[in-house]
Hints:
By secondary structure, this protein is of the alpha+beta class. The chain has one helix at residues 35-55; strands at residues 2-5, 9-12, 18-21, 29-32, 64-67.
Amino acid sequence: MMKAKIPLVLEPQPEGGYTVTSPLLPELITEGDTMAEALANVEDAFSAVVEIYQDRGRPLPPTRMIIYPHS
Length: 71
């Protein structure tokens, strides 16, 4: 499994919940009712952004990649 370390910005919303964005990947936007839920949604949002970049033949901006061996 491969994970990327990217900067995230969690912003509380006036109506409740949190929005998560990344200055490195402006296409990454997700949210959640709690901070934990918002952060849990980042993985799916990141996967969607990777797919968009691949579909368009664009390289991802440099990130710190971490390779986890399969258990």
